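Record Coagulation factor XIII A chain, 735 aa.
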Amino acid sequence: MSETTSINEEKKLPLNGRRALPSNNSNEEENEVPEMEAFGLIPRGFNPKDYLSVVDIHMFKDPDETNKQQHHTDRYYNPKLIVRRGQPFQIQIDFNRPYKPETDKFWLEYLIGRYPQQNKGTYIPILVGDVLKPGEWGAKITHKENNSIRLSIMSSATCIIGKFRLYVAIWTPFGILRTHRNPATDTYILFNPWCQQDAVYLDDEKEREEYVLNDVGIVFHGNINDIKSRGWSYGQFEENILDACLFLMDKAELELSGRGNPIKICRVASAVINSKDDNGVIAGSWDNTYTYGVAPSAWTGSVDILLEYYSSKQPVRYGQCWVFAGVFNTFLRCLGIPARLITNYSSAHDNNANLQLDFFLDDEGKVDTKLTKDSVWNYHCWNEAWMTRPDLPVGFGGWQVVDATPQETSDGMYRCGPASVQAIKHGHVCFQFDAPFVYAEVNSDIVFSRRERNGAQVIEKIDTSHIGQLIVTKEVGRDGMLDITEEYKFQEGSEEERLALETAVMYGVKKQTTRDTTYQPQKDVDMDFQIQKAILGSDFKVTITFSNKSGNSYTATTYLSGNIVFYTGVTKNEFKKHSSSAKLEPFSNSAFDVVVKSSEYLSDLLDQASFHFFVTARINETGKILATQKATVLEIPTLRIKTQGEAVAGKEMSAIVEFTNPLRQTLENVTLRLEGPGVLRTMKKEFRQIPMNSTLIWEVKFIPKRPGLRKLIASLNCDALRHVYGELNVQIRKL
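=>
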């Protein structure tokens, strides 16, 4: 018996009946890759030196070289290549002789973790092709000279974040020859807020500089009547910090295949940055005794904490909310996720998530500390991370609350988020993760109640304006304070704020009423709204309709919120607010129009002219809430492309691009681009102005190189108008 046990212990196969391979959740671990992978028996005369072989690989990884400059990674104190996903980078391979594409076949292999698999994105073979597709893995030769070739490599815009190992594989008739394991060619791949296809794409360069590249910040603390601020060093570019941040994902045992998803990364990081239940980075302490550790207020930044944890693998003592938030910010910015540190003044800690803080009073009217479990923090710090939320309906991307301070468990662990700020503002707290808890932190009511001797509970006071009085973060590019309270909530005491609270209740969140009755929705009134189809630059209307199916007369307080959103559903800002009162006659339908003028949305319009509308109504007589939301896209004009001349390889022909300005304004500093793989290289032309209603015509002469079906693609770009495209298929004949 003991012999069997020892054999099993020696093998230590972490397998079970459900999976063929153990879980691949460590970036640090590696597998052995064979340098010679034979196809069968190798003949006696086979000499690998007779075939193409790699002498050296140049990664262009110095801070002043092209890769780190173009990928905004030149500030990382790390000798290896660091690139951002979805954007091309360059390497050079020196062979033992000139590369002959007709007979030589080689490819690149990127591997991560111990059990690389192609379908998991942990083994990536890259064949050399002619064209790089944006946001997809690929490589093309950009330069050949003597025995060397220069490659441009594109990584996927959804690829795993981490440190990849690089091999060059060469095909021979008898097997595959690979380069040996060389740590100098390791490549870190990070999130890319500069890449439109990346889930963390942020369109404002100043914001990217602040929320990704700024390595210092400000923490606001104190209380609502005495706001204090202090600096914090994030230090995301310091030596070993990138490795320490990748180690946190290993520590959290996040499967490597999930590490391309910022939602998953934020969720596991919010757990691993606190030490509760997983021996994570920081041990919290709020009891004013910090024996055998550092007092939370003594830390000046994240670097010491992360490096100590990386070396000791033991929780660092001690932290409070701003320490957890500071370290979390470093982690997010280091990996390339735009992030900012938030302070909420008068922050509610709602113990039972019933959207109200219950303060129980004794006979004398004092708070009964034994019964009262909820608390109000003078201030509380958390983080916001910027990302799309494809797991939620449109309109809920953008800033997401993530909080590593251990307060309450979520799915069995101390973690919080990501929760959409937009969903919190409008009371749509049914959307994952932990939105009810964050909603309560910024927008709960405080209910003071007293139990009488006969057991009856008497509510003495309801304070609706104390919680979340001020929510702030550091200004972009400056050290001042930016008030972002309106991102989270409507004005205290306003009709809209009460509506949002009641919407949160409607979406199934517990809220004890005075009689502990369950919430009954309004069944005898229906509400809907329609958005008129409109062309970019024109006014349009939103029609709100009510159907009163009862014999009662009602009045409805209606609130419409129009938001400009990215095509990914990420909200940029609110451009339209409209409150109105409607009288609903018995057994009748009524409709109300809200006009949206082009002047209200044009100045803030985003790439694809997407809007998202929330409409909320409260039936005043019953207090019942009706809520609905819809997205719409304006019609954007397109570019027209046509060709002139014979479409024959090797002969000159023309492409003509036309565009008519549909806006009621002159377009300024307009850039046109035209390209066609295999037909013409990218051409660019700038136009100072395009007056309203005028048509621009641009002719480009070119000589197509190859026959076959080709595509011409044109784009127009200026501040007032983006995502204007045109394309044309062209059949190029042989001479």
